[in-house]
Fold each of these.
Amino acid sequence: MAEIELTELTILKALELLEKEKISSTELVELSLEQIKRYDPLVKAFLYVDEEGAKESAKRADELRKKGYPGKLLGIPLSIKDNICIEGLPTTCASKILQNFIAPYDATVIEKLKKEGAIFLGKTNLDEFAMGSSTENSGFFPTHNPWDLERVPGGSSGGSAVATACRMGLGSLGSDTGGSIRQPAAFCGVVGLKPTYGMVSRFGLVAFASSLDQIGPFGINVEDTALLLQIIAGHDERDSTSYPLEPPDYLKFIKENFNLSYKIGLPKEYFEGEIDPEITKALENLIKLLKKKHQIKEISLPHTEYAVATYYIIAPAEASSNLARYDGVKYGFRYREAKTLMEMYKKTRAYGFGKEVKRRIMLGTYALSAGYYDAFYLKASKVRTLIMQDFVKAFEEVDLILTPVTPTPPFKLGEKVFDPLQMYLSDIFTIPVNLAGLPGISIPIGLTQNHLPIGAQIIGSHFKDELVLNLAYQIERQLNLKMVPNLLKS
C-alpha cells in the first residue's frame, strides 16, 4: 500500500486510488477503523462501530472490483446517523427507549448506497430522536467538537459531522429537520447539504417531524457531497412525500458549469440580528469575492422573525404524534414492574425518554389539544405558508440566497443546556429553509481567531439543488481552504 495521508483523502481521490490499485478497500477500511480507535474515545462520534461487518464488506468490495463491478462508491467507508435503519444493526435514535432495537430492514438511502458498494463503519451519535442543536441531548453521552473538545459539534447530526471531520470514514449521512445537517457542518468545518424536501426518500428514517425531516449528506468537500446526493436522491414509492423527479448528475453539473454566474440575494433580516462579529467579517469577505463574478442584491424575507416560533409549534406537534408509538408494547424499552397497563405506559415513557424529548412531546400535545389547535397549530401552518411565499417571491428576483448558518461559532458544552430558548435560537438561520422545503448547504468559509470553523449557507429554490452545489463548489475552489480539525494536528 502506498503511504496514504487520510487528511488528504476524499471520496473521489479514494476511488481513483482504488481504481489504480494503489490501495485496496480492505486497507482503506483498516485506516478508517484505526482513525476511529484513535480519535473516537476523545470525540465520541459513534454509538456503534460495526468493525467485523465493515471488514467483511471491504473484502467483498475488493473481490467485486476484480470482477469489474461498476459501483459508484465501491469500497468507500461511510458512517450513518443512528436514526436511519440499516438491517441487522442497532437503530437507537440515541434514546434509551430504543437502546436494544435492531433494524429489521434497510432505509431506501441505505439500499441505494449498498447497491453502489458503500461500506458502513457504524452508527453515529445524535440528539435524542434528532431533537437538539448540540448533540448534548443524546440519551447516552455528548459528542465533542474536534476543533476544541470543550465545545459542541452542533446537532442533531453532531456524530456524523464529527466522523466526517475526523476522517473516520470519508463521508456520512445525517438528517435535517431544522438545521441538523447544516449547523453541525458549520461547527465542524465540513460540507453539509439539506436537499429539497421530497428529493431524498425518508423511508427508513425514524420520524421526528414528518413534514420537515430530510436525509442529506456530509462530505469533506462539495464534490463528495454532490456524489453522495447523486446516489441517494430519486423517487421512492414507499415514501408518499417523495417527488417523482429524475435527479440530474450533480457532480457532472457542478464541474461543467463552473463558470456560471448568478444573482445572489442577501436577506436583510438575516444580517440584522446579534451575529458574532467574526462571522459577519468572514461573510463580508466572501461577498466581496463573489461581487467579482456574480450580481449581489439585498432582498427581504419579512416573515423570518416568526420562523422559530412557527417551527417550535409545528415540529413538536408532529413529534408528539410520531412518538406516540413508543409505548412499551410493540418494541423498544418496557418498564417491567408495572401493575397496570396505564402504569406501564407512563413509566416506560418517563424512563425511556430524555428531558428534551419530553419537553417537545408536551409542547406538541398541548398545541394539538382540543381548544388550542386553531390558536397554535393552525395559525403556525398559516405563517409557514407566508414564510414559503417570501422565498417564492425572492426567487423571482434572484437565483440563490446567501446567509450565515449560525449566529455564533461553536459554543461550549453545557453553555446552553439549561436555557432551551437560547439553544433553539442557534437554528434561527436554518429553520426557515425546512419550513419552506428548500435545499440549503453549509460550506466552510474560514476560521475564527480561536481556530473554530465558520460556515456560510447557500439556499436555492425548490429542486434547484444543483445550483446550490454549483455556487458552493465555486466558492470552495476560490477559497481553497484546508479544513483539518485541531485534534488531528495535535
Note: The mean pLDDT is 96.
Amino acid sequence: MRRLGIITSGGDAPGTNACIRAVARRCFAAGVTPVGVFDSWDGLLKGAVRDLTRADVAGIVQRAGTILRSARSRLFLQPGDAEVARQALARHDIDALCVIGGNGSQQAAARLHEAGFPVVGVAKTIDNDLAGSELTIGFLTAVEIATAALDNLRATAESHSRVMVLEVMGRDVGWIAVESGIAGGADLVLVPEFPFTLDEICTRLKTRHDAHGRTYSIVVVAEGAMDNARVLDSANAPKDHLGRVRLGGVGTILAREIEMRLGWESRCTTLGYLQRCAAPAAADRILATHLGDRAFDLLQRGQTGLLAGLKGTEVHPVPLADVAGKTKRVTPEYYRLAELFG
C-alpha cells in the first residue's frame, strides 16, 4: 500500500478529526502517503483530492467537525456507482480507502469492497446506531451535551413549575435520548423504537404530578420518536436531497399538546446541531484514535472489507457485509433503565 485515501461521509461527529489524525500519523510512520478526499463522495468525483501533510493534521485532535468536510451524497444509490467510485480512486492513484462514517457510509464501503477495491470502515455517528460497534465516534460527546442541557433545564422547570421538553437527534433510534435521559434523570424518555400516544404521555405526567406531588417534569424526546404522518404534514414537509423528511419540531409539538391537554405551562428546547458541533469529549478522542489505528493495521495487512468497531473495551474487525443495511436499536432491557429511573 503506497497511497491511502481517507474520506469522511455523512453527518459530522465530534472526534472525526482525531480519527483522521490517527490514520494519517500511522501513514507517515509507515512511509505511506495519506490522501485526503474532501467533500465526501461528490468531492471524489469532482477531483477534490490531495495528499495530506503533517501540518494538515497537527493540532486537530480537539477540533470538532472534519477537516476533510462532509456531505450526504447520492453516489452508490444506483447500480454501477461503485465502479464509478473505483475508477475515480484509481485516477488519483489511491491504493486503498478508509471510510469514516455511519450507516450510509458503510453501505457505500461494502459496495466498493464488492467491486474489488480495498476498503476498511471506521464507526462514526452520533446516533450510535451502527451495527458492529458498541460505541461510535461522536456518540459520547452528544450524550454529554444532552445531559448538560437536562441538568440546566431542571433548574428552570423547578423554578417555574413547568414541563420542559428537550428534543435531541435520533431519526430512527433513540440512543442519545435514552442515555442522556438516564444520566440526566429525565422523567419521560421518548424514542422511535417504542411507540406511544399523546394520551399516554399526558396520563403519565398527570400521575406523576398527582400521586407524587411533583410540580414540574422533564421530558426528553428523540426527533424521530413521533410518527411524522400523525403529527406533521409529511406530504408538504421540507425534504433533504435524498428525499427524507427533515426532522425537527417534534418537541415543540409535544410541549404544545401537553399544555393544551393538561393546562400546565410547557416549553421546548431543541439542541439540534449543538450535539454535533461541540469539541469532542476525551472519551471520543480516545475511541477515534483507537479505531483509526486499528483501521490502518487492517489495511496494511491486506485485511479489507471490514469495519473497525468496538467490542467491550477492544477494537475488533467486523465484516462490512454484517454491518451494511442494519441498524442497532435501543433494546427493551436498556429502555427499561430509562423507564425505571425516570
Note: The domain at 3-138+280-322 is CATH 3.40.50.450 (Rossmann fold).
